[in-house]
Amino acid sequence: MMGLMPREETRTTTPPPVRGSAAHDAGKPGGASTRVWTMRLLVLGIVLSALNLRPAITSLGALLEEVRDGLGMSGSVAGLLTSVPPLCFAAFGVMAPRLARRFTAGAVVCAGMAAIATGLIVRPYVGGTAGFLVGSALALMGIAVSNVLMPVIVKHWFPDRVGSMTGLYSMALALGTALAAAVTVPLTDALGGSWQTGLALWAGLAVAAVLPWLPFVRGRVTPPGAGEEVEAARAGGDGPAQGGEPQVPDTAGHAREEAPRLRMIRSRTAWALAVFFGLQATAAYITMGWMAQIFRDAGVPAGTAGLLLAVTMVMGVPLAFVIPRLATRLPHQGPIVLALGVCGLAGYAGLYLAPAAGAWAWAVLLGIANCAFPLALTMVGMRARTGPGVARLSAFAQSTGYLISIPGPLLVGVLYQHSGGWGLPIALMSALMIPQMAVGFLAGRDRTVEDEAAR
């Protein structure tokens, strides 16, 4: 489906002989065909899951003013609401590798999609700000574990196509983000103008995402070459996960004893990537939570403000596919980090100087800057050589990063309420872009956490 990148090929080892269930499938009539359909189903599951990882947030951003009025929120409380996503991502994301070892990655992602659907249905109707926050937290819990496990699943099932598959996943994520921003207001108006209906309708997309993961819940399907890992796990006395799937951190054919030596808190690369992830997440959640309101306060109609937010998000659709592929070809991803940061600074300057007059240009520039997210995901896969390394680095970088990003949207809400305008919040956004560029440049260096652990 997608060609291999030169850099990715150098990281790929010869796959082990197929044994166990993989060999059993290969020996059956139609086994190869079954394997092909299994991989296609997995790709569908990845794409549908990625489509669901942001609508819970951007649909709220498009209707934030209506939600505030309906629930009687102040600007500070609304700022707290926009800080809930990174808080949940940090709190629940760190649990993802452990849950995947216990229940398999497919089962956890399937449960995550179900949690998203339930949270989106519940939160508009439970009544009051507290109930809305609880419903949002349930949906965000499902997003959090899926966020962390997606790079692990890609490394596990597509070890020779990390850049391509990360690009596909990131492109679908950006498409879901943009779709929710663009159509939430028009659909709400078409369905009677109730913000509760406008938020709840996105649960249907999450329900659809549950279905492709059902065959993977009990771990009865395994990637090509996984049989040897299962046999190795059994020989070592550490049984496979439920149903015979090898436990997720042992997904790249590396010995289990490698994992305990990886101390992420002692890795400079891991810390640089975590801080970069946190600062880009800060910028992204400020944008998703507040940009539509910035345009509305500048006199832009609500529907147009939602479209502008959608433009920002939709920029990630083509770029989220291009940037990971480009990143895997380069020995150092720092230049991409700097280019994205410059676009972000230009967009913030435009929001300050002429928010309405140049609205479409600022939306495009900030959309380009937000593509630091797929770049960060790609670097997670590139800064670790082993399956355990990717799992631990993904959990560390995302959980630590989302903790770092929690104060940003809240501070924007507080500054907005107490200053009465957007000058100070935009100054904060611009100031945070400078360290994001610096740590991203460091995270882009050609090294791995395993190499740092060995030293």
TL;DR of this structure?
With 455 residues, the protein is mostly helical. It is built from 23 helices and no strands.
Task: Describe what this molecule looks like in 3D.
By secondary structure, the chain is mainly α. The chain contains 23 helices and no strands. Helix 6 runs antiparallel to helix 21, helix 10 (162-190) runs antiparallel to helix 15 and helix 14 (268-297) packs parallel to helix 21. It is globular, with a radius of gyration of 22 Å. The relative contact order is 0.16.
Keywords:
0% strand, 455 residues, 74% helix, 23 helices, globular, mainly alpha
Terminal Cα span: 38 Å
Largest sheet: none
Run of helices and strands = HHHHHHHHHHHHHHHHHHHHHHH
Radius of gyration: 22 Å
Mean residue pLDDT? 79
Number of distinct helices: 23
Number of strands: 0
Strand content: under 5%
Unreliable residue runs:
1-29, 224-260
Give the % helix: over 70%
Structural class call reads: mainly alpha
Q: What sort of overall outline do the alpha carbons produce when their principal axes are compared?
A: globular
As an assembly, this protein is single chain
